[in-house]
Design goal:
3 domains; alpha/beta; 5-stranded mixed beta sheet; 294 residues; 43% helix; Arc Repressor Mutant, subunit A; D-Maltodextrin-Binding Protein, domain 2; 10 helices
Length: 294
């Protein structure tokens, strides 16, 4: 039984006082209106109309039910109107979290252009390389990089990214270039603590994800520090191209193990599952997907 359709039929008959007129307004057959009213009365266990050959009138139960049905439809119309208005002119505060290095380098332009477009929105950014539980900490959106783990969050891919093994030309000249992931055991690996606690690096080998154990004398929870260490010739690092891209272009860093790179290292916007995503969050994610450049 479609209770919503039955309620619509009931309200139409109650307000018009005529089954045939209600059928015309709803664009359905007279018999369908009659069946919907019968189904509704059966589910309620109460008679809603007094029917005669000349008229249709409400019972006491029908008048009580009509009051509540009208309120339900009025509330629904108000909700839909508010959602449509929110979608056209988003307003309110968005709490957004993102990795520190990425946020510092790339988020200002798209966030600024979004705020120029939607001046009634306020964005509160929190940049941190630690894993943020957005539900527990009250965030609307998180920017996350890399493979998305199974969770109750919705992830939308914003842009493709790469994470590369790299070192300075001087380092490769002195210590050699690894040809396969297992060769990293012979190198001083500068490791990101938030990736397997700095103990191993992920690669694609034979179509499967493989974790290669690594070790080295410099570990950090910040990619920029590792970048500077790699530039100085201190060791070999696994870093995203949004950090090392300019150095690769200028050839102050060089890439190794390209054939073993992960292929699913992308940048996503994640948010909590909801039946009705707010206009402010939806428009921000859409804007990031359209304007984010790395």
């Amino acid at each position: 039984m479609d209770k919503f359709a039955n309620m619509q039929a009931f309200q139409s008959v109650a307000e018009s006082g005529n089954f045939a007129e209600s059928a015309r307004r709803l664009g359905i057959a007279n018999s369908v209106v009659s069946k919907r009213i019968k189904d509704l009365e059966a589910s309620l266990g109460a008679q809603l109309f007094i029917r005669t050959t000349r008229s249709v009138s409400l019972t006491d139960a029908g008048r009580t039910y009509l009051t509540h049905v009208q309120k339900i439809f009025e509330d629904l119309n108000d909700i839909e109107a508010n959602i449509r208005q929110d979608s056209r002119t988003p307003s309110g505060t968005i709490k957004l979290t993102a990795p520190l290095s990425f946020g510092m380098q790339y988020l200002a332009p798209p966030l600024s252009s979004y705020l120029l477009k939607y001046p009634n929105v306020t964005i509160r950014t929190h940049l941190s390389d630690r894993f943020v539980d957005i539900a527990a900490e009250g965030f609307d959106v998180a920017i996350r990089i890399g493979t998305m783990k199974d969770s109750n969050l919705v992830a939308r891919k914003l842009i493709h990214a790469r994470r590369v093994v790299c070192a300075s030309p001087a380092y490769f000249k002195k210590y050699g270039r690894p040809e396969k992931p297992a060769d990293l055991k012979n190198h001083n690996c500068l490791s990101y603590l938030n990736l397997a606690e700095g103990k191993s690096w992920p690669f694609k080998v034979g179509g499967k994800r493989v974790w290669q154990p690594v070790s080295g004398n410099f570990l950090s929870d910040n990619g920029d520090l590792l970048y500077q260490a790699a530039l100085s010739g201190c060791g070999i690092a696994l870093l995203p191209t949004f950090i090392v891209g300019s150095a690769l272009a200028e050839k102050t860093l060089q890439v190794a193990l390209e054939d073993y790179e992960e292929t699913d290292f992308d940048i996503h916007a994640v948010y909590q599952q909801t039946k009705h995503l707010s206009g402010k969050v939806r428009t921000l994610i859409d804007h990031l997907a359209q304007t984010l450049k790395v």
